[in-house]
């Protein structure tokens, strides 16, 4: 009996040693060791890491961001990679995830929150929530795609996944090159080739029909205009077909954005191309008509010169505007695009109006609207008058003065002469109060009175930044005192100065010996 008990005890000890030597069960144990650079410490890190991995085609790595413990460990590697791939297509097509708004702390939205929602995707009359789930791994908060979401990936993929899954061989879905699967590369090549061929055929059909209509007229200008559309008309067709074709390829967000920008750019180039041809065709037609009617008359030569100059002006404006519209697509150079548009407007107006001296004020108004040294609502000091800008036109500015009068000022005043704009920069301001007192006045007592005024009557006007009272000047019979105070804006500053001046005068008047006194020697 004792020998049997000892054998059982030894067996239990051996079993304990074996179990103790095994690694502790962890999250998604079937996937193997977690990569060291894998960050799942916050919802933002998990979402960003998953999207980066799947868009690089690293589905095995992306599987670590999914909750797969409901699957047998032996199935987790294959199933996890497939689920990550399917979830990528579903998110790219139906849910744009903005990772910048997700919490970046380990506890998520709050210390007690276990889930963070990325949004919802409709499915057969219901909305499937896409959520991240916080679990504890070795005492460390770890965020993964929630189990309930992972279990719904297959139904979502059947609804929103690629349409070619059932028709193409599996090899087109197994490998990823530069973030795209082989079927996507094949679809992109077919889309580009098909869009170019179809755009060529559509252009040819449309131009043939338009040319037949143009031949019904007696003038040749419309025939030339139809021929000018050969080439520019093909680009919009190609851009539209490209956008339609790529919409079925479920491209990643960055490539989808690139495709949209290419389509938009082609349309801008087509319009600019056609405008340039339109200008040349119109110029040639007008010149031919004038030459046929007047021969080599000086008026015809003058008109040809004017047409050439105008065409050059409009061509430059077309290039500038087209380049600006192209640049404005990109955030990095958007300011350059806006500047080009502004320059095009200024250049066009300058060429057309600079010679007109009577319209110089109009040009000044346009310059003022661009440089904006003054805006509506600004408090300004012009020609000794203080007021608020109430209206700005291309020729004059209306100033509402403090006594409700309206002062109309030519627009050139704000470009040719200096003025004070009290609203530029910070609205905080400082103001002075000047007083004349006798040499016998107690300066410290006046400082104490200033402190009392700002702490009591003026506390709703004073912003607490500046309060000083100093002897500003020494004259032969009096002292000049300057009180400096600050306020949050010009309106409060004016009221504060009036209040300080009034209270200090009352304070001095109660002490007649401090009032300026004229002394004479006998």
TrEMBL record:
Any Pfam family hit: MS_channel_2nd
Annotated compartments: Membrane
Single Gene Ontology MF annotation: mechanosensitive monoatomic ion channel activity
InterPro entries for the chain: LSM_dom_sf, MscS_beta-dom_sf, MscS_channel_2nd, MscS_channel_TM-2
Its membrane topology: Multi-pass membrane protein
Keywords: Membrane, Signal, Transmembrane, Transmembrane helix
Transmembrane parts of this sequence: 182-202, 233-250, 262-279, 308-330, 336-355
Signal sequence region: 1-26
A GO CC annotation given for this chain: membrane
Mechanosensitive ion channel MscS domain span: 358-424
Protein family membership: Belongs to the MscS (TC 1.A.23) family.
Entry protein name: Mechanosensitive ion channel
Protein species of origin: Corallococcus exercitus
């Amino acid at each position: 009996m004792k020998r049997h008990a000892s054998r059982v005890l030894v067996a239990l000890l051996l079993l304990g040693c074996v179990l103790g030597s095994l690694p502790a069960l962890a999250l998604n144990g079937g996937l193997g060791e977690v990569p060291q650079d894998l960050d799942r410490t916050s919802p933002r890190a998990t979402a960003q890491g998953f999207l980066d991995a799947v868009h690089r085609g690293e589905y095995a790595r992306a599987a670590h961001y999914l909750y797969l413990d409901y699957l047998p460990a032996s199935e987790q590697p294959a199933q996890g990679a497939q689920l990550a791939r399917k979830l990528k297509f579903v998110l790219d097509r139906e849910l744009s995830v903005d990772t910048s708004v997700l919490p970046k702390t380990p506890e998520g939205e709050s210390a007690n929150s276990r889930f963070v929602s990325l949004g919802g995707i409709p499915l057969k009359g219901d909305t499937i929530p896409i959520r991240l789930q916080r679990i504890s791994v070795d005492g460390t908060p770890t965020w993964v795609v929630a189990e309930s979401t992972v279990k719904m990936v297959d139904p979502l993929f059947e609804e929103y996944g690629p349409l070619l899954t059932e028709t193409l061989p599996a090899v087109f879905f197994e490998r990823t090159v530069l973030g795209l699967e082989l079927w996507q590369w094949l679809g992109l090549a077919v889309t580009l080739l098909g869009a170019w061929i179809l755009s060529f055929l559509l252009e040819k059909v449309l131009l043939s029909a338009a040319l037949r209509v143009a031949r019904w007229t007696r003038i040749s200008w419309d025939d030339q205009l139809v021929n000018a559309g050969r080439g520019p008309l093909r680009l919009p067709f190609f851009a539209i077909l490209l956008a339609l074709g790529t919409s079925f390829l479920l491209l990643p967000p960055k490539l989808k954005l690139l495709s949209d920008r290419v389509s938009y750019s082609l349309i801008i180039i087509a319009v600019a191309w056609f405008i340039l041809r339109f200008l040349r065709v119109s110029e040639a037609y007008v010149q031919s008509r004038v030459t046929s009617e007047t021969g080599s008359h000086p008026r015809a030569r003058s008109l040809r010169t004017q047409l050439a100059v105008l065409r050059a002006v409009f061509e430059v404006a077309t290039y500038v505007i087209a380049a600006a519209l192209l640049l404005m697509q990109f955030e990095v150079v958007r300011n350059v695009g806006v500047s080009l548009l502004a320059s095009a407007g200024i250049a066009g107006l300058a060429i057309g109006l600079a010679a007109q001296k009577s319209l110089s004020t109009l040009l000044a108004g346009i310059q003022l609207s661009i440089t904006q040294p003054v805006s509506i609502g600004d408090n300004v000091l012009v020609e000794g008058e203080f007021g608020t800008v109430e209206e700005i036109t291309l020729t004059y500015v209306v100033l509402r003065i403090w006594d409700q009068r309206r002062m109309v000022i030519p627009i050139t005043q704000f470009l040719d002469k200096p003025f004070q704009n009290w609203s530029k920069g910070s609205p905080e301001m400082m103001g002075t109060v000047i007083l004349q007192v006798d040499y016998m006045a107690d300066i410290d007592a006046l400082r104490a009175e200033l402190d009392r005024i700002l702490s009591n009557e003026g506390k709703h006007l004073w912003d607490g930044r500046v309060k000083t009272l100093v002897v500003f000047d020494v004259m032969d019979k009096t002292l000049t005192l300057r009180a400096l105070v600050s306020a949050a804006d010009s309106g409060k500053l004016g009221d504060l100065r009036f209040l300080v001046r009034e209270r200090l005068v009352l304070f001095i008047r109660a002490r007649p010996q401090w009032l300026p006194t004229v002394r004479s020697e006998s």
